[in-house]
Design goal:
10 strands, alpha/beta, binds adenosine-5'-triphosphate
């Protein structure tokens, strides 16, 4: 399998030296020297306690944060440190925990989907309409959802529509940041099933951030464990859950309810 993402020695430090006599004051080393790969067709989960740097890592991959050091290679193209990944545009898309963060509250779903279809894919009005109907079918929503506004939908429906927006850009990689943790358990299961179907249908790879180990065990091919900004362990899912090596991974698994 070829790698879609290759991250080498990636770091992110937030904040500025507060005073000349204490240059490290108010600095947070959110991500420390992380290297990892995401292969085509793979679901790589990133787990770790709150504040371990999961979202910062994900945000750097999609260009929402600029790395302090290290490199990101996305489908063979290198992005140097100190530059944002924004130029990767459509290849990699971020799906937020709160689907309403991906959907403009003042626009209909059709108007929101039209933006990437027009600007990133260059589709004509007729092509856009056809593609929107295909996307609604893919995320199992009725066609008339296109004329609705985000607040008219339930959390699970809104997350389906947020996935349609990510797919409208013809992404190959979705960065899913706690995509089901705001949903009821039964709705979670439906959205996880949909994610599996979309992965096959659109030949996607997922970077799946979650603190819910039961969800991770059910969906991930490999699992990366972060602790205080460092990647302490990365292994295929069965190995990590069956034979965790690092002491932190062992305590994380011991403290979590299992399926
Ligand atoms: N914009 C920012 N400015 C300053 N510090 C930040 C910023 N974003 C994150 N941090 C800090 O970086 C560290 C890592 O945060 P991050 O959100 O990446 O962790 P996380 O593992 O995703 O946590 P959670 O599961 O709670 O979302 C934390 O100490 C956080 O306070």
């Amino acid at each position: 399998m070829s790698n879609l993402i290759e991250v080498e020695n990636l770091s992110k430090t937030f904040g500025h030296p507060a005073r000349w006599f204490n240059p490290t004051a108010h600095q947070v080393r959110a991500v420390k020297n992380i290297s990892l790969q995401l292969a085509a067709g793979e679901t790589l989960a990133v787990v770790g306690e709150s504040g371990s740097g999961k979202s910062t890592l994900a945000r750097m991959l999609v260009g929402l944060e600029t790395p302090s050091a290290g490199t990101i290679r996305l489908m063979g193209k290198t992005l140097a440190a100190h530059r944002s990944a924004g130029s990767f545009g459509r290849l990699i898309q971020y799906v937020f925990q709160d689907p309403l963060a991906s959907l403009n509250p003042r626009k209909t779903i059709a108007a929101t989907l039209a933006v990437p279809l027009k600007l990133l894919c260059g589709y004509s009005a007729a092509q856009r309409k056809k593609r929107m109907l295909e996307l609604m079918e893919a995320v199992q929503m009725p066609a008339d959802a296109l004329s609705g506004y985000p607040h008219e939908f339930s959390g699970g429906q809104a997350q389906r529509l947020a996935l349609a927006r990510a797919l409208a850009a013809e992404a190959r990689i979705l960065v899913l940041d706690e995509p089901v943790s705001a949903l009821d358990v039964s709705v979670q299961a439906q959205v996880l099933l949909l994610l599996e179907q979309l992965k096959q249908q659109f030949d996607l790879a997922y970077l799946f951030i979650s603190h819910d180990l039961a969800v991770v065990e059910s969906i991930a091919d490999r699992v990366a464990v972060m602790y205080q900004g460092e990647l302490v362990e990365c292994a295929d899912s069965a190995t990590l859950f069956g034979y965790p090596e690092h002491r932190y991974t062992q305590s994380l698994l011991a403290s979590a309810p299992r399926l």
